[in-house]
Amino acid sequence: MDKPRVLVTRAIFPQVIANLAQHFEVTSNQADELWSPPQLIEQLQGKQGVFTTGSERIDAALLAACPELRICANMAVGYNNFDLEAMTAAGVLGTNAPDVLTETTADFAFALLLATARRISESEHFLRAGQWSRWSYDLFAGAEVHGSTLGILGMGRIGQAIARRGAHGFGMKVIYHNRSPLDEATQQRCAARYVSLQGLLREADHLVLVLPYSGASHHIIGAAELAQMKPTATLVNIARGGIVDDAALAAALQNRIIAAAGLDVFEGEPKVHPDLLRVPNVVLTPHIGSATLATRQAMAQLAVDNLVGFLVHGKPVTPLNEVRAVPDK
Ligand code: GLV
Q1: Is 322 a catalytic residue?
Q2: What are the phi and psi torsion angles at 206 (to 5°)?
Q3: Strand partners, 150
Q4: pTM, 2 dp
């Protein structure tokens, strides 16, 4: 029997290609060319599976043009690049890569929070520019992290891992807002208290965004929300671009409506709003929240396991929707 055909949309660890090749006829993009949507459709012709990285849009138009496609395996926990409803209607399975990145991403949230509150990037630029001539009492004096109030918007697995670090590592008071409150035992483990969105904005010294992107969370943090935050507050976005109105944030940073921001994700990335590049009180990183080698390998392997699980054994590991198992399709 012919092996199923699988496309890998971007360059990836060679071991991943080797693992896939044990089960599939693999077309890979190790040259890491950036494909337009029509080019992606062309590459997908005759493929039953696709390994995506979180930025390839899988929508009704693509699905209609790729009738043999049965599974899209995202090497990302976020899957806002999938139109899941259209995929279900087309009988195409979506899978993501949860859990394996939780602790690493929570570490990164703290790295970005600390860099932002303690003005690490700003002060390094100053030093590298040869501007450091003497000690002074308020040189890059930032905001306290330990003992402050940590606000978390979105309390899934990563939010909870951030809460545990804040409460148990930094002695922070942790408050959160989520679609619904956590159960009592989980809340206690995180030493976190549920508050309204307005309460979160008003009370947090440091606000970390870690909620999924959707129509409902688009620009959930805009000018009006920033105006409710403390002028000494920091904002950290490790979730997705589009959750924050980047233009409004740049204006708020410039006008010191809030003290500082740390951003790992951007609206329309890899483009960054030009005003954000001009303000000094923002730390900018290129979507590296889960980027340790071990975690990226684990995420990629989970996507492989989903492709093998579904296309070979009829049982994916981390499915996002329900479709009929492959042999019956
Ligand atoms: C990264 O942004 C992910 O969703 O895994």
Answers
A1: no
A2: -135, 125
A3: 174, 206
A4: 0.96
Distance 205 CA to ligand 1 centre (A): 25
Tell me which residue of 68, 79, 63 sits closest to 6, measured CA to CA.
68
Residue 212 Cβ inside 6 Å of ligand 1? The answer reads: no
Residues with Cβ within 8 Å of 116's Cβ and at least 6 positions away in sequence, in order, are 206, 234, 236, 260, 261, 262, 282, 283
Question: Which of 52, 75, 77 best tests ligand 1's pocket when mutated (most atoms within 8 Å of CB)?
Answer: 77
| Architecture of domain 5-100+293-311 in this structure | 3-Layer(aba) Sandwich (3.40)
Q: With the C-alpha atoms ordered 311, 317, 321, 324, is the resulting torsion angle positive or negative?
A: positive
269: annotated active-site residue:
yes
Residue whose CA lies nearest to ligand 1 atom number 4: 78
Domain 102-284 superfamily per CATH: NAD(P)-binding Rossmann-like Domain (3.40.50.720)
pLDDT tens, position by position, for the chain (329 residues)? 789 999 999 999 999 999 999 999 999 999 999 999 999 999 999 999 999 999 999 999 999 999 999 999 999 999 999 999 999 999 999 999 999 999 999 999 999 999 999 999 999 999 999 999 999 999 999 999 999 999 999 999 999 999 999 999 999 999 999 999 999 999 999 999 999 999 999 999 999 999 999 999 999 999 999 999 999 999 999 999 999 999 999 999 999 999 999 999 999 999 999 999 999 999 999 999 999 999 999 999 999 999 999 999 999 999 999 998 765 44
Ligand 1 pocket mutation pick from 75, 101, 296, 306 by most atoms within 8 angstroms of CB: 101
Distance CA 148, CA 134 (A): 30
Map out the domains of the chain as residue ranges.
Answer: 5-100+293-311, 102-284
